[in-house]
Specification:
The protein has 283 residues and is an alpha/beta fold. The chain is 40% helix and 14% strand. It folds into three domains: 40 residues, no CATH class; 144 residues, no CATH class; 48 residues. A six-stranded mixed beta sheet has the order 1-2-3-4-5-6, with helices on both faces. It has a two-stranded antiparallel sheet with strand order 7-8. The longest helix has 25 residues. The radius of gyration is 32 Å and the shape is elongated. The two termini are 54 Å apart.
């Protein structure tokens, strides 16, 4: 017993620096023989559990499902905002899909409609007025009536193709303001993806990840991390999206589910997996 106590005292009084050794929490098989130093493993934010998981397609899908159950269809977790797409039973969502999502502004649909309506109404007014007023007055009346009809049509259709007029856009902006600058990354599905891309255009410091966004982009132009399934009729004109997997069912093809398990939606590199291109985390 005394011998053991004496040895313990010697060990307690042992100063490795005096012998030229460097203390370390990692030793070899001899308990008190300091023989090597190993630098502790430094974990980067990307290596940490949550930061890795929150970048997976599966995590994004789960959060988008939760967003769909929120009153405003938007959910913020950490620094990411999840924006759900269209509820088929919501008339306003359906109207926004038809009137705001397609790229109507690029073809000036409002101008074309207002011009066509004005011309038709003007012609009808000329025919109606001429028998009573004569050709000159009838032509004047037709011109004025046509101009009024054109102006009214243009006013009623001025928001066609304007993504900033989507109701979900208003909801997402309200959520962003409520979070007070916390949001750094936007994740959206379908119409929610279009909203995310529109918000990113306004603030390029934001990152974006979208699934099945109805983007009109016949050329492969990069903006955000965009994904789609083959067979999705809504995103088929988005040449800048990564196509992963496919389905003959347009509903399944448009879903944010169905991406390979364990693959990532940001900080990624393309990897061939059979006929599909999938993503892995870049360390």
């Amino acid at each position: 017993m005394r011998k053991n106590k004496k040895k313990k005292r010697e060990i307690d009084n042992y100063t490795p620096e005096a012998r030229g050794f460097v203390p370390s929490t990692v030793t070899n098989n001899t308990r008190y023989d300091f023989t090597e130093v190993k630098k502790p493993f430094e974990r980067t934010p990307r290596d940490s559990g949550f930061n890795s998981v929150k970048n997976t397609h599966a995590f994004n899908a789960t959060m988008l499902r939760l967003a769909s159950k929120q009153p405003n269809n938007v959910l913020t977790v950490d620094d990411k905002m999840y924006i759900y797409g269209t509820h088929p039973t919501n008339p306003r969502d359906v109207w926004d899909d038809v009137s705001k999502i397609p790229n109507w502004k690029e073809i000036d649909l409002s101008g074309k409609l207002s011009g066509a309506v004005g011309a038709k109404v003007g012609e009808a007014a000329v025919e109606a007025a001429t028998p009573y007023t004569g050709p000159f007055v009838g032509a004047y009346v037709g011109t004025k009536v046509g101009e009024k009809a054109s102006d009214l049509t243009k006013h009623m259709t001025k928001d066609l193709g304007d993504s900033t007029k989507i109701h979900r856009y208003e909801q997402a902006k309200e959520e962003q303001e409520k979070q007070g600058g916390k949001v750094k990354h936007l994740v959206g599905h379908s119409m929610g993806g279009n909203v995310a891309l529109e918000m990113q255009k306004e603030d390029p410091s934001l990152k974006s990840t979208t699934y099945g966004a109805a983007v009109w982009q016949p050329f492969s132009t990069k903006q955000g991390d965009r994904y789609r399934h083959g067979g999705d009729p809504f995103s088929m004109l988005d040449r800048g999206a990564k196509t992963i997997g496919s389905s003959w069912n347009p509903v399944s093809a448009h879903s944010f589910d169905g991406y390979p398990e364990g693959t990532y939606a940001s900080n990624t590199a393309d990897v061939k997996d059979g006929d599909s291109t999938v993503d892995i985390l870049v360390k």
